[in-house]
Amino acid sequence: MLLGSSEDSQGISGARLSRFHPELEQRFVSVSVPVVRAEAGILSVSVGRPTGWSPEKYVMISVWFIEADVAVFAGEDGQQGRYPPGHG
After folding, report:
1. Taking the model in full, what pTM does it have?
2. Comparing 76 with 15, which gets the higher pLDDT?
3. How far is 77 from 24, CA to CA, in rounded Å?
4. DSSP per position, 14-81
5. In degrees, to the nearest 5, what angle opens at C-alpha 53 toward C-alphas 49 and 54?
6. CA 65: distance to chain centroid?
7. Are strands 12-13 and 42-48 parallel, antiparallel or unpaired?
8. Burial of 83 (0-12, 13-18, 19+ CB in 10 A)
9. Contacts by residues 58-63 (CB-CB < 8 Å, ≥ 24 positions apart)
10. Average pLDDT for residues 23-48, to the nearest whole number?
């Protein structure tokens, strides 16, 4: 959920909610988003911040050109999370 707010230059939505987990959010901005954006076939990537209803949850939404591009990036089981090298 992108909370209906505009995205900043890093693809992070919901500016008023940044107080929840600044260290995790910083890793999304500095590590995860650039790793995904560098992949072949990526069309967009956005991160939604926690809300008052789910203060522990972030969401990363990526849109890919074709499903095969997702498989190259995430492996055959694209439903599993993938940690960038050195961060898992």
Report:
1. 0.66
2. 76
3. 24
4. -GGGTTS-HHHHHHIIIIIHHHHHTSTTEEEEEEEPP-SSSTT--EEEEEESSHHHHHHHH-S-TTS-
5. 50
6. 17
7. parallel
8. exposed
9. 58/21, 58/24, 58/25, 58/28, 59/1, 60/28, 60/32, 60/33, 60/36, 61/2, 62/36
10. 88
pLDDT interval class at 87 (50, 70, 90): low
**Once rounded to an integer, what is the mean pLDDT over residues 63-76?**
89
Of 86, 78, 51, nearest to 62 by C-alpha is: 78
Radius of gyration of the chain (CA): 13
CA dihedral 45, 24, 2, 34 (to 10 degrees): -10
Tell me the two tokens of residue 81.
Answer: 């999370």
Residue 51 one-letter amino acid: T
